[in-house]
Write a structure and sequence with these properties.
Elements lengths: L1 H29 L19 E2 L8 E7 L17 E6 L1 H10 L7 E10 L10 E13 L9 E6 L5 E2 L7 H9 L11 H8 L2
Antiparallel strand pairs: 1-7, 2-3, 3-4, 4-5, 5-6
This protein binds heme C.
Heme C binds next to strand 3, strand 4, strand 5, strand 6 and helix 3.
């Protein structure tokens, strides 16, 4: 008799557990994409300007382009190819993304502009990077930018803090419309593309 009770008890436990996990799966579907906890590594000064991160040499490399233009107004000229544009991601947020496939609130990305040089040292053809010309940071921040959920900060080579423009703006619109994942241009970043392909 006791054995029968045990068997019924075990069966009930299994049924309840299965039902519970089905409900949880349903909840997840209703909630949309997985929600992940935010990261808080961005530092702001008293006026709300974003302090230029001081560890960018440790950020993760996402991709690079040369003379990349978005509107065709300036055709590409191989003799004067324009700038190198390098994209980096803050490592704490990168780790969360690798785990979940979602950019957590607080994620930061940087777009660095370097000029091009040729005939430097042993270089005789092609181009190497010249000095940093400018730096732009993409910050995901739902509290600061409730309408878009993100915005940009621009720095000259020597700037240590930057303000953000009002949202929405020309920058946020193109990113929202054409950036493949949460307004980020993951279609151009091989490491992130690889991670997204696993989902
Ligand atoms: C017409 C579309 C368009 C507009 C407008 C635009 N961007 Fe982008 N942005 C891109 C593309 C495409 C990339 C991919 C990387 C590249 O340019 O090399 C990118 C990448 C970036 C990145 C790297 C992280 C990410 O989100 O993918 C930052 C930071 C960035 N842009 C900042 C800005 C800022 C600041 C402005 C406004 C001054 C701006 N963008 C306006 C198309 C646009």
């Amino acid at each position: 008799m006791a054995q029968r009770f045990l068997a019924v008890g075990a069966l009930l436990t299994i049924l309840v557990a299965t039902h519970y996990s089905l409900l949880r799966a349903q909840d997840r579907q209703l909630a949309g994409p997985v929600s992940v906890e935010g990261v808080s590594v961005a530092v702001f000064d008293d006026s709300g300007a974003l302090v230029r991160p001081d560890n960018m040499e440790k950020w993760v490399f996402l991709g690079a382009s040369l003379g990349m233009g978005y509107n065709g107004a300036v055709p590409f000229d191989p003799d004067t190819p324009g700038n190198f544009q390098t994209v980096l991601m803050e490592p704490t947020a990168f780790d969360v993304f690798q785990e979940t496939g979602v950019f957590p609130d607080g994620s930061m990305f940087a777009l660095l502009f370097h000029g091009t040089r040729t005939n430097v040292s042993i270089n005789q053809s092609g181009f190497v990077m010249d000095d940093l010309l400018a730096l732009e940071i993409h910050l995901k921040d739902k509290a600061r930018f409730p309408d878009t959920g993100f915005n940009f900060f621009f720095y000259g080579p020597e700037d240590t803090v930057a303000d953000a423009p009002d949202t929405p703006n020309g920058c946020t619109s193109c990113h929202t419309e054409h950036g493949e994942t949460q307004a980020v241009f993951t279609q151009f970043y091989p490491t992130l593309k690889e991670r997204l392909a696993k989902d």
